[in-house]
Amino acid sequence: MNFLRKKLDDLKRPFGKGQKLERYAPAINAFDTFLFVPNHTTHVGAHIRDAVDLKRTMVTVIIALIPALVYGIYNTGYQHYVQTDLPFTFIDAFIHGSWKIVPMIIVSYVVGLTIEFIFAIYRGHEVNEGYLVTGLLIPMIMPVDIPLWMVAISVAFAVLIAKEAFGGTGMNILNPALTARAFAFFAYPTYMSGNKVWVSEASNIDGISGETILGTLAAGGNVNYSFFEMFQGSIPGSIAETSALFVLIGAAILIFTGVGSWRIMAGSVIGAAIVGYLFNLWGANALMSFSWLNHLVVGGFAFGVVFMATDPVSAAQTNKGKWVYGILVGVFCILIRVFNPAYPEGVMLAILLMNVFAPTIDHYVIQGNINKRKKRWASALKTA
Amino acid sequence: MSADIRIRRGATIHLKGESEKILSDASPSKTFALKPDNFFGIVPRLMIREGDSIPKGAPIFHSKKDPRILFVSPVSGIIKDVVRGAKRKILKIVIEQQEGDVISHKIPAFKSLDRKNITEILLKSGAWPFLKQRPYGIIADPNTTPKSIYISTYASAPLDVDFQFLLKNNKEEFQMGIDILNALVDTPPILSMDADFSGFFEKVKKVKVLRINGPHPAGNVSVQIHKHTPINMGEKVWEVRPEDVVNIGKLFADGQYSAQRTVAVAGESVLKPQYIKTKIGALISALTDITGFDNSRQNRFINGDVLSGKAEASDGHLDFYNNILTIIPEGNKYRMFGWLPFMDNRIPSLSKTSLSWLFGSKGYRVDTNMNGEERALVVTGEMEKVFPMDIYPMQLLKACMAGDIEKMEVLGIYEVIPEDFGLIDYANTSKIEAQQIIKDGIELMINEVG
Questions:
Q1: Contact present, B237 and B30 (Cβ < 8 Å)
Q2: Partner residue facing B426 (CB), from A48, A313, A377
Q3: Can you list the domains of chain A with their CATH numbers?
Q4: What ipTM was assigned to the predicted interfaces of this complex?
Q5: What is the percentage of chain A residues whose pLDDT exceeds 90?
Q6: B188 and B211, same domain (yes or no)
Q7: Best interface-test mutation with A: which of B232, B297, B306, B350 has the largest number of A CBs within 10 A?
Q8: Is pLDDT above 70 for B67?
Q9: Is A54 in contact with B330 (Cβ distance < 8 A)?
Q10: CA B295 distance to own-chain centroid
Q11: Distances from the Cα of B239 to the Cα of B128, B325, B428, angstroms
Q12: Which residue has the higher pLDDT, A274 or B186?
């Protein structure tokens, strides 16, 4: 460790204060702090600090994402082999999936981090760790056959327009990962919907039934999957969204570590369940009579609620606000699914919509606190 | 004992090196110092020159805004040094102790004491700075009458003192001080105490008792005021620290300015952590001579507790108000991959991304490492967990950063002082310096609103 530390210190010397490469210090610092927690000590304020920092928080989210990612890789291969009627083993499915997905992750990180580094150097602040999560989320919510250059463009759009244009990490209004998906969805609709995109290499084969469940329902078709298949996730869909089971494992990690807001998750499930149940009672079309329980496990609902809606920057920030925000995400998700057959997947739009309204929700919560204080002042004046 | 106020949100951080219940005298302190920075919002005007010979209780400087507020010497001696910093700002006035006179004030009979002559004696003797005022945590304005006076005997910060033990030899003077404060304002002072260990404070007369239960910052006066009778715009509340009640009591007993200060020397680096009796502004070495400290490593000396205290050099002096001197190791070392969740679980953490809660039974060892770097505010809800007031801390901090006075007012700036944000400094993921932001915010309020 000492040897490595010395090497790093030598390497960092030209980036020091007053040195030639000082401007580029954020870039080298990002690598250094990846290896070592720095030796910085407290100067103002409290003399001791909690062990938690943003890196640790973000890495916890990545750990929570891994079960869903691993299953997504397997399911990509599984769907491919099942639909093409080829014999395969567990390992085959896994290898096929890895060939598809690992390049997407690499592209996402390379493009996104490059932009982040450039902005950090340009603005003279350290590189924030937020993109570690965003960069993994983006490939996980894309259809598997999307070309890599589209991933690159979507990433660039999301980081530049959704994040850096608003001031960088912590300032963005929309969730960057969902912005990337929405961008791809509206810019390249043929690659983002239909029945050919959800199964790897499906476009080469005729007569495939690779439609997502929600897509099938929106088109008025019948669903041939059991609840358990939907829950476990051996269904077509975006890479890592299909398995409610593995998303739940991630949710458990987020809730246990306190990194993800259980209020938002619980609120969303409650909101979606109630609206789903009401539509079940109404039952005017296939999507309405689709059981509310199934609504919770198909499509991107579970994934979106656990990993996207809980993004603390774009969600509501007050505890009361989180409940309202969460419930509305659930409500709008089902509403969009049922009433808008052009967008069978409602959760992306529901979360983006609520991202926009989150500051308004917080405003009213905080205004409540302010009004309480003002009322107290007024009554104190009266009695005085 | 049932509590009047129960605090739920907050955290008690149990550290190694708690002071034992032993009371020793400090070794003689060659010099004493007064630091104008200890008095938030005061601009000092010197009343002495280097080389002056002064008696104990002689004024050293006064407040520029109100010349009646005097700051006096805790000992007799010679003005050895006036240490100045950037822009000739006075950092400290060092007094070399020598045998000499003591200034005595004439104290009228207790029965004839009223608000007017008590105020006069407190001002003249230099005891007025013992009275602090909310909002802002500045020295009280002698022209105002407070809604009430709070005395918190419940010290909840890490390694903080047990005032029952600290004042065990001053019970009569404490009552005397209370009597004086009672005569100073119309209402009886509010004496808050730990609901479980109230001890002799239970028997103090002429006070309103407030029993507190809960984790830090339950002992902070701001929290107690907020839960009991929150401050409204325009209202003033005063605060006196328990030992300063004793100092006021002593002043009215013998007419001499009393600068008694009993300090718990605590922290992992202290060899024999215990209570040391000395005077305000004494040399830190006069205390560590008795307690010793581990000088095989770099240490941080903190005037105050680890959350809200001020760093001081090992050859520096005690501050004016603090009853605790904490010494902990510096943390200027690297930790490989220390940012991984569940790494380095010995570092106390309120986050569940650490297993530190398993290792706390014997007290945590802490150092001064930042454990990360400052980042944008991302995580929400964590500040609220350690902030028991009905105030939105992150929103208030943001209003302070933006300098939005109107917002700061309605979000509750009148009800807080920097130390209330000590746990937020400690716990927040983004390593934001919340206390400094609040301090700057309050400074802005004083300059713009008054």
A1: no
A2: A48
A3: 55-369 (1.10.3430)
A4: 0.93
A5: 58
A6: yes
A7: B232
A8: yes
A9: no
A10: 26
A11: 12, 21, 28
A12: A274
